[in-house]
Amino acid sequence: MSSSEPALTVGANRSYAIRTYGCQMNVHDSERLSGLLEDAGYVRAPEGTEEADVVVFNTCAVRENADNKLYGNLGRLAPAKTRRPGMQIAVGGCLAQKDRDTILRKAPWVDVVFGTHNIGRLPVLLERARVQEEAQIEIAESLEAFPSTLPTRRESAYAAWVSVSVGCNNTCTFCIVPALRGKEKDRRPGDILAEVEALVAEGVSEITLLGQNVNAYGSDIGDRQAFSKLLRACGAVEGLERVRFTSPHPRDFTDDVIAAMAETPNVMPQLHMPLQSGSDSVLRAMRRSYRQDRYLGIIEKVRAAIPHAAISTDIIVGFPGETEEDFEQTLHVVREARFAQAFTFQYSKRPGTPAAEMDGQIPKETVQQRYERLVALQEEISWEENRKQVGRTLEVMVAEGEGRKDDATHRLSGRAQDNRLVHFTKPDEDVRPGDLATVDITYAAPHHLLAEGPTTRLRRTRAGDAWERRTAQETGTQGVMLGLPAVGVPAPLPAADGCAVR
Predict the structure, then answer these.
(1) How many CA atoms lie within 13 A of 66 on its CB side?
(2) Which segments constitute the TRAM domain (predicted)?
(3) SS3 342
(4) Which range has the worst mean pLDDT, 228-232, 399-403, 445-449?
(5) Binding site per annotation, positions
(6) How many helical (H) and strand (E) elements, i.e. helices and strands, does the chain have?
(7) Can you tell me the distance from the alpha carbon of 161 to that of 159, in angstroms, rounded to the nearest whole number?
(8) Rounded to 5 degrees, what angle do the CA atoms 63, 69, 71 make?
(9) Residues 222-245: what's their mean pLDDT?
(10) Could you give the 3-state DSSP secondary structure of residue 180?
(11) What residue numbers does the annotated binding site for [4Fe-4S] cluster cover?
Protein backbone atom coordinates (compact mmCIF):
# COMPACT_ATOMS: atom_id res chain seq x y z
CA MET A 1 0.00 0.00 0.00
CA SER A 2 1.40 3.41 -0.91
CA SER A 3 1.67 6.20 1.66
CA SER A 4 -1.22 7.99 -0.06
CA GLU A 5 -3.66 5.10 0.49
CA PRO A 6 -6.09 5.32 3.42
CA ALA A 7 -5.71 2.83 6.26
CA LEU A 8 -8.22 0.00 6.05
CA THR A 9 -10.12 0.50 9.28
CA VAL A 10 -13.66 1.14 8.10
CA GLY A 11 -14.45 -2.49 7.30
CA ALA A 12 -14.74 -3.48 10.95
CA ASN A 13 -18.24 -4.84 11.54
CA ARG A 14 -19.64 -3.30 8.33
CA SER A 15 -21.80 -5.76 6.41
CA TYR A 16 -21.47 -6.61 2.73
CA ALA A 17 -23.51 -8.39 0.05
CA ILE A 18 -22.29 -9.50 -3.39
CA ARG A 19 -24.65 -9.97 -6.32
CA THR A 20 -23.20 -12.01 -9.14
CA TYR A 21 -24.23 -12.19 -12.79
CA GLY A 22 -22.63 -14.48 -15.35
CA CYS A 23 -20.59 -17.64 -15.56
CA GLN A 24 -18.44 -19.69 -13.21
CA MET A 25 -15.56 -17.26 -13.63
CA ASN A 26 -17.74 -14.51 -12.18
CA VAL A 27 -18.93 -16.78 -9.37
CA HIS A 28 -15.35 -17.68 -8.47
CA ASP A 29 -14.31 -14.02 -8.62
CA SER A 30 -17.14 -13.27 -6.18
CA GLU A 31 -15.70 -15.83 -3.77
CA ARG A 32 -12.46 -13.85 -3.92
CA LEU A 33 -14.27 -10.54 -3.40
CA SER A 34 -15.91 -12.04 -0.30
CA GLY A 35 -12.52 -13.19 0.95
CA LEU A 36 -10.98 -9.76 0.38
CA LEU A 37 -13.77 -7.95 2.20
CA GLU A 38 -13.74 -10.32 5.17
CA ASP A 39 -9.96 -10.05 5.31
CA ALA A 40 -10.47 -6.26 5.58
CA GLY A 41 -12.92 -6.65 8.48
CA TYR A 42 -16.31 -6.71 6.74
CA VAL A 43 -18.93 -9.28 7.71
CA ARG A 44 -21.30 -11.02 5.35
CA ALA A 45 -24.89 -9.76 5.47
CA PRO A 46 -27.62 -12.36 6.02
CA GLU A 47 -28.94 -13.97 2.84
CA GLY A 48 -31.64 -11.88 1.16
CA THR A 49 -31.14 -8.79 3.30
CA GLU A 50 -31.64 -5.34 1.76
CA GLU A 51 -29.69 -3.62 4.53
CA ALA A 52 -26.04 -4.36 3.70
CA ASP A 53 -23.60 -1.49 4.28
CA VAL A 54 -21.72 -2.37 1.08
CA VAL A 55 -23.36 -3.89 -1.99
CA VAL A 56 -21.05 -5.19 -4.73
CA PHE A 57 -22.29 -6.07 -8.21
CA ASN A 58 -20.01 -8.50 -10.05
CA THR A 59 -21.16 -8.19 -13.64
CA CYS A 60 -21.23 -10.01 -16.96
CA ALA A 61 -21.11 -8.35 -20.40
CA VAL A 62 -21.90 -11.24 -22.73
CA ARG A 63 -25.63 -10.74 -23.10
CA GLU A 64 -27.83 -7.67 -23.32
CA ASN A 65 -29.97 -8.58 -20.33
CA ALA A 66 -26.86 -8.26 -18.12
CA ASP A 67 -26.86 -4.49 -18.76
CA ASN A 68 -30.58 -4.20 -18.11
CA LYS A 69 -30.37 -6.25 -14.93
CA LEU A 70 -27.50 -4.18 -13.52
CA TYR A 71 -29.01 -0.75 -14.17
CA GLY A 72 -32.41 -1.91 -12.94
CA ASN A 73 -30.92 -3.10 -9.66
CA LEU A 74 -28.81 0.02 -9.27
CA GLY A 75 -31.96 2.10 -9.72
CA ARG A 76 -33.76 0.14 -7.03
CA LEU A 77 -30.88 0.79 -4.61
CA ALA A 78 -30.86 4.56 -5.13
CA PRO A 79 -33.57 5.28 -2.50
CA ALA A 80 -31.75 3.10 0.05
CA LYS A 81 -28.54 5.00 -0.62
CA THR A 82 -30.38 8.29 0.00
CA ARG A 83 -31.80 7.04 3.30
CA ARG A 84 -28.44 5.66 4.46
CA PRO A 85 -25.60 8.06 3.62
CA GLY A 86 -22.92 5.61 4.83
CA MET A 87 -24.01 2.90 2.41
CA GLN A 88 -21.62 2.14 -0.48
CA ILE A 89 -22.22 0.54 -3.87
CA ALA A 90 -19.48 -0.97 -6.04
CA VAL A 91 -19.65 -2.34 -9.58
CA GLY A 92 -16.98 -4.69 -10.92
CA GLY A 93 -16.52 -7.44 -13.48
CA CYS A 94 -16.80 -7.53 -17.25
CA LEU A 95 -19.46 -4.86 -17.66
CA ALA A 96 -17.47 -2.49 -15.46
CA GLN A 97 -14.37 -3.15 -17.56
CA LYS A 98 -16.36 -2.31 -20.70
CA ASP A 99 -18.59 0.55 -19.52
CA ARG A 100 -16.39 2.23 -16.92
CA ASP A 101 -17.63 5.78 -17.60
CA THR A 102 -21.20 4.87 -18.56
CA ILE A 103 -21.94 3.36 -15.16
CA LEU A 104 -21.38 6.58 -13.23
CA ARG A 105 -23.22 8.61 -15.85
CA LYS A 106 -26.30 6.37 -15.56
CA ALA A 107 -25.97 5.77 -11.80
CA PRO A 108 -24.00 8.63 -10.17
CA TRP A 109 -24.76 7.22 -6.71
CA VAL A 110 -22.28 4.36 -7.32
CA ASP A 111 -19.14 4.72 -5.16
CA VAL A 112 -16.62 2.38 -6.84
CA VAL A 113 -16.13 0.99 -10.35
CA PHE A 114 -13.37 -1.61 -10.78
CA GLY A 115 -12.45 -4.06 -13.53
CA THR A 116 -11.64 -7.73 -14.08
CA HIS A 117 -7.88 -7.28 -13.65
CA ASN A 118 -7.79 -5.50 -10.29
CA ILE A 119 -10.42 -7.11 -8.07
CA GLY A 120 -7.85 -7.14 -5.27
CA ARG A 121 -8.18 -3.36 -5.01
CA LEU A 122 -11.82 -3.32 -3.89
CA PRO A 123 -11.25 -2.74 -0.12
CA VAL A 124 -8.82 0.13 -0.81
CA LEU A 125 -11.17 1.74 -3.32
CA LEU A 126 -14.11 1.55 -0.92
CA GLU A 127 -12.08 3.22 1.81
CA ARG A 128 -10.74 5.87 -0.55
CA ALA A 129 -14.29 6.67 -1.73
CA ARG A 130 -15.38 7.02 1.91
CA VAL A 131 -12.48 9.27 2.92
CA GLN A 132 -12.52 11.46 -0.20
CA GLU A 133 -16.32 11.44 -0.46
CA GLU A 134 -16.25 10.94 -4.21
CA ALA A 135 -16.62 8.02 -6.60
CA GLN A 136 -13.55 6.00 -7.51
CA ILE A 137 -12.99 4.45 -10.95
CA GLU A 138 -10.00 2.19 -11.30
CA ILE A 139 -9.76 -0.12 -14.31
CA ALA A 140 -6.48 -1.96 -14.90
CA GLU A 141 -5.76 -2.82 -18.53
CA SER A 142 -3.77 -5.94 -17.68
CA LEU A 143 -3.72 -8.50 -14.89
CA GLU A 144 -2.06 -7.17 -11.72
CA ALA A 145 -1.78 -10.52 -9.91
CA PHE A 146 -3.18 -13.99 -10.58
CA PRO A 147 -6.53 -13.99 -8.77
CA SER A 148 -5.84 -17.28 -7.01
CA THR A 149 -3.32 -15.48 -4.80
CA LEU A 150 -6.16 -13.46 -3.25
CA PRO A 151 -8.12 -14.43 -0.12
CA THR A 152 -11.20 -16.54 -0.93
CA ARG A 153 -14.42 -17.26 0.91
CA ARG A 154 -15.69 -20.37 -0.85
CA GLU A 155 -19.44 -20.87 -1.09
CA SER A 156 -19.19 -24.62 -0.47
CA ALA A 157 -17.36 -26.66 2.13
CA TYR A 158 -17.11 -29.72 -0.11
CA ALA A 159 -16.83 -28.46 -3.72
CA ALA A 160 -14.52 -25.80 -5.13
CA TRP A 161 -13.45 -24.03 -8.30
CA VAL A 162 -9.74 -24.07 -9.18
CA SER A 163 -8.67 -21.66 -11.92
CA VAL A 164 -6.04 -23.00 -14.30
CA SER A 165 -5.87 -19.84 -16.41
CA VAL A 166 -7.42 -16.45 -17.00
CA GLY A 167 -8.16 -14.74 -20.29
CA CYS A 168 -8.75 -16.17 -23.75
CA ASN A 169 -6.82 -16.19 -27.04
CA ASN A 170 -9.85 -16.86 -29.24
CA THR A 171 -11.44 -14.17 -31.42
CA CYS A 172 -15.05 -15.37 -31.68
CA THR A 173 -17.01 -12.63 -33.42
CA PHE A 174 -19.94 -12.77 -30.97
CA CYS A 175 -17.86 -12.58 -27.78
CA ILE A 176 -16.41 -9.57 -26.04
CA VAL A 177 -14.80 -11.50 -23.18
CA PRO A 178 -11.23 -11.66 -24.60
CA ALA A 179 -11.25 -7.87 -24.89
CA LEU A 180 -12.28 -7.59 -21.24
CA ARG A 181 -10.35 -10.43 -19.62
CA GLY A 182 -7.25 -10.22 -21.82
CA LYS A 183 -5.04 -12.86 -23.42
CA GLU A 184 -4.74 -16.28 -21.83
CA LYS A 185 -2.37 -16.48 -18.90
CA ASP A 186 -1.70 -19.93 -17.43
CA ARG A 187 -0.84 -20.81 -13.88
CA ARG A 188 2.11 -23.06 -13.16
CA PRO A 189 1.00 -26.71 -12.76
CA GLY A 190 2.67 -26.89 -9.36
CA ASP A 191 0.64 -23.93 -8.10
CA ILE A 192 -2.61 -25.51 -9.32
CA LEU A 193 -1.86 -28.85 -7.68
CA ALA A 194 -0.79 -27.13 -4.46
CA GLU A 195 -4.18 -25.39 -4.34
CA VAL A 196 -6.01 -28.66 -5.06
CA GLU A 197 -4.11 -30.48 -2.30
CA ALA A 198 -4.76 -27.66 0.16
CA LEU A 199 -8.49 -27.73 -0.63
CA VAL A 200 -8.64 -31.50 -0.18
CA ALA A 201 -6.84 -31.14 3.15
CA GLU A 202 -9.65 -28.78 4.22
CA GLY A 203 -12.27 -31.40 3.30
CA VAL A 204 -13.12 -30.52 -0.31
CA SER A 205 -13.87 -33.68 -2.30
CA GLU A 206 -14.91 -32.24 -5.69
CA ILE A 207 -13.02 -29.67 -7.72
CA THR A 208 -13.84 -28.07 -11.04
CA LEU A 209 -10.87 -26.90 -13.11
CA LEU A 210 -11.88 -23.57 -14.55
CA GLY A 211 -10.76 -21.50 -17.52
CA GLN A 212 -12.23 -19.38 -20.29
CA ASN A 213 -10.84 -22.07 -22.62
CA VAL A 214 -9.77 -24.68 -20.14
CA ASN A 215 -8.24 -27.27 -22.47
CA ALA A 216 -6.03 -24.66 -24.14
CA TYR A 217 -4.13 -24.73 -20.85
CA GLY A 218 -0.44 -25.08 -21.62
CA SER A 219 -0.30 -22.76 -24.62
CA ASP A 220 1.09 -19.99 -22.43
CA ILE A 221 3.70 -22.26 -20.81
CA GLY A 222 4.72 -24.12 -23.96
CA ASP A 223 3.26 -27.58 -23.29
CA ARG A 224 0.38 -28.68 -25.51
CA GLN A 225 -0.29 -31.75 -23.34
CA ALA A 226 -0.28 -29.81 -20.08
CA PHE A 227 -4.03 -30.18 -19.54
CA SER A 228 -4.10 -33.96 -19.87
CA LYS A 229 -1.09 -34.14 -17.55
CA LEU A 230 -2.96 -31.95 -15.06
CA LEU A 231 -6.00 -34.25 -15.14
CA ARG A 232 -3.80 -37.28 -14.46
CA ALA A 233 -2.00 -35.44 -11.65
CA CYS A 234 -5.37 -34.69 -10.02
CA GLY A 235 -6.01 -38.43 -10.12
CA ALA A 236 -3.07 -38.94 -7.77
CA VAL A 237 -4.41 -36.57 -5.08
CA GLU A 238 -5.56 -38.78 -2.23
CA GLY A 239 -9.03 -37.92 -0.96
CA LEU A 240 -10.12 -36.11 -4.14
CA GLU A 241 -13.32 -37.91 -5.15
CA ARG A 242 -14.40 -35.98 -8.23
CA VAL A 243 -12.71 -33.83 -10.87
CA ARG A 244 -14.61 -31.83 -13.49
CA PHE A 245 -13.58 -29.08 -15.90
CA THR A 246 -15.25 -26.32 -17.90
CA SER A 247 -15.35 -25.03 -20.56
CA PRO A 248 -13.25 -26.63 -23.31
CA HIS A 249 -13.04 -25.49 -26.93
CA PRO A 250 -13.40 -28.12 -29.69
CA ARG A 251 -10.37 -26.69 -31.48
CA ASP A 252 -8.09 -27.66 -28.60
CA PHE A 253 -9.74 -30.94 -27.66
CA THR A 254 -7.04 -33.55 -28.23
CA ASP A 255 -6.88 -37.34 -27.96
CA ASP A 256 -4.56 -37.21 -24.95
CA VAL A 257 -7.29 -35.38 -22.98
CA ILE A 258 -9.84 -38.07 -23.89
CA ALA A 259 -7.39 -40.77 -22.76
CA ALA A 260 -6.76 -38.94 -19.48
CA MET A 261 -10.49 -38.64 -18.85
CA ALA A 262 -11.03 -42.34 -19.50
CA GLU A 263 -8.03 -43.57 -17.52
CA THR A 264 -8.23 -41.32 -14.44
CA PRO A 265 -10.85 -42.75 -12.06
CA ASN A 266 -11.76 -39.51 -10.30
CA VAL A 267 -12.23 -37.53 -13.55
CA MET A 268 -15.98 -37.68 -13.99
CA PRO A 269 -17.73 -39.16 -17.08
CA GLN A 270 -19.08 -35.77 -18.09
CA LEU A 271 -18.15 -33.28 -20.80
CA HIS A 272 -19.50 -29.80 -21.45
CA MET A 273 -18.31 -28.76 -24.92
CA PRO A 274 -19.86 -25.71 -26.62
CA LEU A 275 -21.14 -26.25 -30.16
CA GLN A 276 -22.62 -22.77 -30.86
CA SER A 277 -23.80 -23.80 -34.35
CA GLY A 278 -23.94 -26.94 -36.45
CA SER A 279 -23.49 -25.00 -39.69
CA ASP A 280 -19.99 -24.79 -41.12
CA SER A 281 -20.73 -21.43 -42.73
CA VAL A 282 -22.03 -19.97 -39.47
CA LEU A 283 -19.06 -21.40 -37.54
CA ARG A 284 -16.81 -19.69 -40.09
CA ALA A 285 -18.64 -16.38 -39.56
CA MET A 286 -18.37 -16.87 -35.80
CA ARG A 287 -14.62 -17.42 -36.28
CA ARG A 288 -14.89 -20.82 -34.60
CA SER A 289 -11.92 -22.88 -35.77
CA TYR A 290 -13.68 -26.26 -36.15
CA ARG A 291 -16.45 -27.64 -38.32
CA GLN A 292 -19.38 -30.00 -37.85
CA ASP A 293 -17.40 -33.15 -38.69
CA ARG A 294 -14.65 -32.25 -36.24
CA TYR A 295 -17.16 -31.65 -33.45
CA LEU A 296 -19.08 -34.88 -33.98
CA GLY A 297 -15.78 -36.76 -34.30
CA ILE A 298 -14.74 -35.62 -30.81
CA ILE A 299 -18.05 -36.80 -29.37
CA GLU A 300 -17.68 -40.16 -31.09
CA LYS A 301 -14.20 -40.61 -29.60
CA VAL A 302 -15.37 -39.59 -26.11
CA ARG A 303 -18.28 -42.05 -26.21
CA ALA A 304 -16.01 -44.84 -27.46
CA ALA A 305 -13.65 -44.27 -24.54
CA ILE A 306 -16.30 -43.42 -21.91
CA PRO A 307 -19.61 -45.10 -22.94
CA HIS A 308 -21.70 -43.61 -20.12
CA ALA A 309 -20.41 -40.05 -20.53
CA ALA A 310 -23.06 -37.33 -20.35
CA ILE A 311 -22.31 -34.58 -22.86
CA SER A 312 -23.77 -31.08 -22.69
CA THR A 313 -23.28 -28.00 -24.83
CA ASP A 314 -24.03 -24.33 -25.60
CA ILE A 315 -25.87 -23.30 -28.76
CA ILE A 316 -26.59 -19.84 -30.20
CA VAL A 317 -29.66 -19.41 -32.40
CA GLY A 318 -30.10 -16.55 -34.88
CA PHE A 319 -26.49 -15.53 -35.48
CA PRO A 320 -26.30 -12.90 -38.28
CA GLY A 321 -26.69 -14.52 -41.66
CA GLU A 322 -28.04 -17.81 -40.31
CA THR A 323 -30.36 -19.32 -42.93
CA GLU A 324 -33.03 -21.96 -42.41
CA GLU A 325 -30.60 -24.48 -43.92
CA ASP A 326 -27.92 -23.39 -41.42
CA PHE A 327 -30.37 -23.85 -38.57
CA GLU A 328 -31.32 -27.31 -39.85
CA GLN A 329 -27.63 -28.24 -39.64
CA THR A 330 -27.69 -27.29 -35.96
CA LEU A 331 -30.73 -29.51 -35.42
CA HIS A 332 -28.88 -32.31 -37.25
CA VAL A 333 -25.93 -32.09 -34.86
CA VAL A 334 -28.27 -32.06 -31.86
CA ARG A 335 -29.92 -35.26 -33.14
CA GLU A 336 -26.56 -36.91 -33.80
CA ALA A 337 -24.84 -35.83 -30.58
CA ARG A 338 -27.79 -36.60 -28.29
CA PHE A 339 -26.77 -34.12 -25.64
CA ALA A 340 -27.86 -34.80 -22.09
CA GLN A 341 -28.43 -31.07 -21.77
CA ALA A 342 -28.01 -27.96 -23.90
CA PHE A 343 -27.80 -24.33 -22.81
CA THR A 344 -29.56 -22.52 -25.65
CA PHE A 345 -29.28 -18.81 -26.35
CA GLN A 346 -30.88 -16.37 -28.73
CA TYR A 347 -28.14 -14.31 -30.37
CA SER A 348 -27.66 -11.04 -28.52
CA LYS A 349 -25.98 -8.16 -30.33
CA ARG A 350 -23.16 -6.82 -28.18
CA PRO A 351 -21.55 -3.47 -29.04
CA GLY A 352 -17.83 -3.84 -29.57
CA THR A 353 -18.03 -7.28 -31.22
CA PRO A 354 -17.58 -7.86 -34.98
CA ALA A 355 -20.91 -9.73 -35.15
CA ALA A 356 -22.78 -6.61 -34.06
CA GLU A 357 -21.77 -4.92 -37.34
CA MET A 358 -22.48 -7.87 -39.63
CA ASP A 359 -25.10 -7.80 -42.34
CA GLY A 360 -27.99 -10.24 -42.14
CA GLN A 361 -29.22 -9.58 -38.59
CA ILE A 362 -32.11 -12.02 -38.08
CA PRO A 363 -35.59 -10.68 -37.21
CA LYS A 364 -36.58 -11.32 -33.60
CA GLU A 365 -39.64 -13.39 -34.52
CA THR A 366 -37.54 -15.73 -36.69
CA VAL A 367 -34.98 -16.17 -33.92
CA GLN A 368 -37.74 -16.90 -31.41
CA GLN A 369 -39.36 -19.49 -33.65
CA ARG A 370 -36.07 -21.29 -34.28
CA TYR A 371 -35.22 -21.13 -30.60
CA GLU A 372 -38.50 -22.79 -29.65
CA ARG A 373 -37.93 -25.58 -32.19
CA LEU A 374 -34.44 -26.20 -30.83
CA VAL A 375 -35.60 -26.25 -27.21
CA ALA A 376 -38.42 -28.69 -28.04
CA LEU A 377 -36.01 -31.06 -29.81
CA GLN A 378 -33.45 -30.94 -27.02
CA GLU A 379 -36.13 -31.46 -24.37
CA GLU A 380 -37.24 -34.63 -26.16
CA ILE A 381 -33.66 -35.92 -26.43
CA SER A 382 -32.84 -35.07 -22.79
CA TRP A 383 -35.86 -37.03 -21.65
CA GLU A 384 -34.99 -40.01 -23.85
CA GLU A 385 -31.40 -40.02 -22.59
CA ASN A 386 -32.54 -39.73 -18.97
CA ARG A 387 -34.96 -42.65 -19.39
CA LYS A 388 -31.92 -44.81 -20.24
CA GLN A 389 -30.76 -44.23 -16.66
CA VAL A 390 -33.82 -45.95 -15.14
CA GLY A 391 -32.71 -49.19 -13.48
CA ARG A 392 -29.11 -48.05 -13.07
CA THR A 393 -27.42 -47.77 -9.68
CA LEU A 394 -25.72 -44.38 -9.29
CA GLU A 395 -23.48 -42.79 -6.68
CA VAL A 396 -24.80 -39.34 -5.79
CA MET A 397 -22.92 -36.60 -3.96
CA VAL A 398 -25.44 -34.96 -1.65
CA ALA A 399 -25.74 -31.28 -2.54
CA GLU A 400 -26.85 -28.01 -1.00
CA GLY A 401 -29.73 -26.14 -2.54
CA GLU A 402 -30.27 -28.42 -5.55
CA GLY A 403 -33.77 -29.60 -4.65
CA ARG A 404 -36.18 -26.76 -3.95
CA LYS A 405 -39.01 -29.16 -3.05
CA ASP A 406 -36.93 -31.57 -0.97
CA ASP A 407 -38.39 -30.54 2.36
CA ALA A 408 -41.98 -31.09 1.16
CA THR A 409 -41.20 -34.38 -0.60
CA HIS A 410 -38.94 -35.81 2.14
CA ARG A 411 -36.15 -36.19 -0.37
CA LEU A 412 -32.53 -35.16 -0.75
CA SER A 413 -30.79 -34.11 -3.96
CA GLY A 414 -27.36 -34.36 -5.47
CA ARG A 415 -25.32 -34.95 -8.58
CA ALA A 416 -24.43 -38.31 -10.08
CA GLN A 417 -20.92 -38.83 -11.39
CA ASP A 418 -22.08 -37.81 -14.88
CA ASN A 419 -23.52 -34.60 -13.37
CA ARG A 420 -27.18 -35.54 -13.74
CA LEU A 421 -29.39 -34.15 -10.98
CA VAL A 422 -30.86 -36.91 -8.80
CA HIS A 423 -33.61 -36.58 -6.18
CA PHE A 424 -33.74 -39.53 -3.76
CA THR A 425 -35.68 -40.62 -0.69
CA LYS A 426 -34.17 -39.26 2.51
CA PRO A 427 -32.70 -42.18 4.51
CA ASP A 428 -33.22 -42.55 8.25
CA GLU A 429 -29.52 -41.94 8.87
CA ASP A 430 -28.05 -38.45 9.22
CA VAL A 431 -26.80 -37.14 5.87
CA ARG A 432 -24.60 -34.10 5.19
CA PRO A 433 -23.82 -32.28 1.92
CA GLY A 434 -20.67 -33.89 0.58
CA ASP A 435 -21.66 -37.40 1.72
CA LEU A 436 -22.11 -40.05 -0.98
CA ALA A 437 -25.35 -42.02 -1.42
CA THR A 438 -25.77 -45.01 -3.71
CA VAL A 439 -29.30 -45.20 -5.12
CA ASP A 440 -31.33 -47.07 -7.74
CA ILE A 441 -32.98 -44.87 -10.38
CA THR A 442 -36.72 -45.52 -10.75
CA TYR A 443 -37.99 -42.56 -12.82
CA ALA A 444 -36.67 -39.99 -15.29
CA ALA A 445 -37.81 -36.50 -16.24
CA PRO A 446 -36.11 -34.28 -18.84
CA HIS A 447 -34.02 -32.43 -16.25
CA HIS A 448 -33.70 -34.81 -13.30
CA LEU A 449 -33.74 -38.43 -12.15
CA LEU A 450 -35.66 -39.89 -9.23
CA ALA A 451 -34.73 -42.75 -6.86
CA GLU A 452 -37.88 -43.63 -4.92
CA GLY A 453 -36.58 -46.69 -3.07
CA PRO A 454 -34.29 -46.94 -0.06
CA THR A 455 -30.68 -45.79 -0.27
CA THR A 456 -28.50 -48.78 -1.10
CA ARG A 457 -25.45 -47.37 0.65
CA LEU A 458 -24.50 -44.18 2.45
CA ARG A 459 -20.84 -43.23 2.80
CA ARG A 460 -20.04 -40.47 5.26
CA THR A 461 -17.10 -38.48 3.94
CA ARG A 462 -14.46 -35.99 5.04
CA ALA A 463 -16.35 -33.50 2.85
CA GLY A 464 -19.48 -34.05 4.95
CA ASP A 465 -17.39 -33.55 8.07
CA ALA A 466 -16.10 -30.27 6.63
CA TRP A 467 -19.66 -29.10 5.89
CA GLU A 468 -20.71 -29.98 9.43
CA ARG A 469 -17.79 -28.08 10.98
CA ARG A 470 -18.42 -25.02 8.84
CA THR A 471 -22.14 -24.99 9.55
CA ALA A 472 -21.50 -25.32 13.27
CA GLN A 473 -19.07 -22.37 13.15
CA GLU A 474 -21.50 -20.19 11.20
CA THR A 475 -24.51 -20.97 13.39
CA GLY A 476 -22.70 -21.32 16.70
CA THR A 477 -24.25 -24.75 17.26
CA GLN A 478 -22.84 -28.24 17.65
CA GLY A 479 -23.60 -31.35 15.65
CA VAL A 480 -25.71 -29.74 12.92
CA MET A 481 -27.21 -32.31 10.56
CA LEU A 482 -28.96 -31.99 7.25
CA GLY A 483 -32.22 -30.12 7.20
CA LEU A 484 -32.97 -28.08 4.11
CA PRO A 485 -29.65 -26.77 2.75
CA ALA A 486 -29.58 -23.13 1.81
CA VAL A 487 -26.02 -22.27 0.75
CA GLY A 488 -25.20 -22.60 -2.94
CA VAL A 489 -22.68 -25.04 -4.37
CA PRO A 490 -20.52 -24.14 -7.38
CA ALA A 491 -22.74 -24.60 -10.42
CA PRO A 492 -21.45 -27.56 -12.41
CA LEU A 493 -22.37 -26.05 -15.78
CA PRO A 494 -22.33 -22.61 -17.31
CA ALA A 495 -24.95 -20.17 -16.22
CA ALA A 496 -27.53 -19.34 -18.83
CA ASP A 497 -26.28 -15.79 -19.36
CA GLY A 498 -22.61 -16.26 -18.64
CA CYS A 499 -19.28 -15.83 -20.39
CA ALA A 500 -18.89 -19.58 -20.54
CA VAL A 501 -20.68 -19.22 -23.87
CA ARG A 502 -17.66 -20.24 -25.90
Answers:
(1) 30
(2) 387-455
(3) strand
(4) 399-403
(5) 23, 60, 94, 168, 172, 175
(6) 15, 21
(7) 7
(8) 115
(9) 96
(10) helix
(11) 23, 60, 94, 168, 172, 175
